[in-house]
Amino acid sequence: MPVTTLSGHQIHVNDEGFLTDPSEWDEELGTALAAQIGITMTDEHWKVVRYLRADFATQGETATLRRVSTNGGVPVKQLFAMFPQKPAKKMAYIAGLPKPQGCV
Amino acid sequence: MKKRLLVLGAGTAGTMIVNKLRHHLPAAQWSITVVDRDDVHPYQPGYLFVPFGLLAPEQINRSRHAFLADGVDFVIADVDRVDAPASTVTLTDGRVLEYDYLVIASGTTPRPDQTPGMLGDEWQRSIFDFFTFDGAVALSKALQSFTHGRFVVHITDMPIKCPVAPLEFTFLADAWLREQGLRDRVDLVYVTPLPGAFTKPISSERLGSMLDERKITVESDFLVEHIDTENKTLVSYDEREVPFDLLVTIPLNMGADFVARSGLGDELNYVPVDKHTLQSTTYPNLFAVGDASDIPASKAGSVAHFSVEIFVDNFLQLIAGKPMTRSFDGHANCFIETGNGKGLLIDFNYETEPLLGKFPLPVAGPFDLLKETRANHLGKLAFRWIYWNILLPGRPLPLPSHMSMVGKTQPNGATKTLATK
């Protein structure tokens, strides 16, 4: 596992840059990760990221877009506007969580 | 008093469970009841072949009761709700069934009603599914008059039942169009919410290049918001558009509505369970087996089959007051039909993606993993007989329920010698 440093945080990441240890994350790091993929965090972004963190803590899996929309209360359309093109992947990246399973 | 095992759903998982457990549980001590809404057991892998006339509709369906062991009570009814704290199930006709242990095996169902525009005027005119008997038969008729234009195969969202079936359908459509001499007049397009042809990197690359070779356009990361039926166009959440003349879609798949009514489901009505034991995360006398659970494995008959073997052993330990010692590894094994009498085979689990190798015997095979061969196609055809005659009756099939790593290779040639079992 590569170790990298981002905005003063030493973090373990996989080859796609996703954190491999969700406990290394805090909101300051979330802001830095978002900046890496060109996203400026707003209150709406934080609502989604905090939901993902809380849901992961109880479920042990990264929530799908449908779950964020149904249980987290943010419509899928809005998720695509906030995290363009690949919202599921980008949300997880910023939240320091594993990429959501494709559910083979 | 007799103990009562109640199973909801007499499909692949439910039928195997009652047949295997009836063999182990003495009739004097245990009643076994299975509930289903009808008496028609479809061979679901057969739906794929119906649109191309490769399997006749009458070769798909059998009666459920013919495959249930003696001493299993079969109730035909719809389930209204499960009261898990009270250990009762209420049927829509008002009957109440009490249980000591409950298995939810009610599967997953395509739901075209969940996408705006899908179930409208164009349904079964220019928009079809093939994951239902009616859909597959209607599509076979529509293909007879299809001559040219945009032929779009589409997945609404994951997870879906048999995740390789849309690819197989696309390969078969390509082969069928060539046979009819129509391929040059048709744009074949594969639209998926995934970033590529499949979820796991090595097989996705292999399957993706097979789509390329066949000149099939892939539209990836496409999550449909609605279908514009007037303009016959798929519209995504990020406002991309894919027009079609003929759309073959895989609608959103959801677990049974009674699961939601009973407060037992997640956002897609799947029952949350421990992924190694299939035991409910909330109620220790409740299990969900097969497509009805939320385990992160393929919703496929092979997963139902391998997990039932683990479940049955664990269940016998549980009722004997012992700890459950077997652990399901997410093992799946799927033939992928690729057209022209050939097929591919993939073998994988929770931890390991599909790799190159041989199956079921390492090195000896006879089936090649991740390679197109005639033997894999014949294996797929032979499986229909195995399903009815060996699998459903609960007879042992000489396939390991745990995946083996012996003889498997990464495409760069590195052999894994570690055995998982």
Helix count, DSSP H or I runs of 4 or more residues of chain B: 7
Q: What is the element string of chain A, with H for helices and E for strands?
A: EEHHHHH
Instruction: Name the largest protein-protein interface in this structure.
Output: A-B, 20 and 22 residues
The first-to-last residue Cα distance of chain B is: 40 Å
By secondary-structure content and strand pairing, the structural class of chain A works out as mainly alpha
Oligomeric assembly: heterodimer
Can you tell me the number of structural domains of chain A?
Answer: 1
Q: Uncertain segments of chain A of ≥5 residues (pLDDT<50)?
A: none
Into which percentage range does the β-strand content of chain B fall?
25-35%
- The pLDDT mean of chain B sits at 94
Number of helices of chain A: 5
Give helix % range of chain B. 10-25%
Q: What is the fourth-level CATH superfamily of the largest domain in chain B?
A: FAD/NAD(P)-binding domain
What percent of residues of chain A adopt helix (DSSP H or I)? 40-55%
Q: What form of chain A results from the Cα inertia axes? A: globular
Largest beta sheet: strand ordering of chain B = 5-2-1-9-20
- CATH architectural grouping of the largest domain in chain B: 3-Layer(bba) Sandwich
Radius of gyration of chain B (Å): 22 Å
List the helices and strands and how they pair.
The complex is a heterodimer of chains A (104) and B (421).
Chain A: E1 3-6, E2 9-12, H1 27-36, H2 43-59, H3 65-72, H4 76-82, H5 87-95
Antiparallel strand pairs in A: 1-2
Helix pairs in contact in A: 1-5, 2-5
Chain B: E1 3-8, H1 12-24, E2 30-36, E3 40-42, E4 61-63, E5 72-76, E6 79-83, E7 88-91, E8 96-98, E9 101-104, E10 108-110, E11 127-128, H2 133-144, E12 149-155, H3 165-179, E13 186-191, H4 201-213, E14 217-219, E15 224-228, E16 233-236, E17 241-243, E18 246-250, E19 253-255, H5 257-261, E20 286-288, H6 301-319, E21 332-339, E22 342-348, E23 357-361, E24 365-369, H7 374-391, E25 408-409, E26 415-416
Parallel strand pairs in B: 1-2, 1-9, 2-5, 9-20, 11-18, 12-13, 12-18, 13-14
Antiparallel strand pairs in B: 3-4, 6-7, 7-8, 10-19, 15-16, 16-17, 21-22, 23-24, 25-26
Helix pairs in contact in B: 1-6
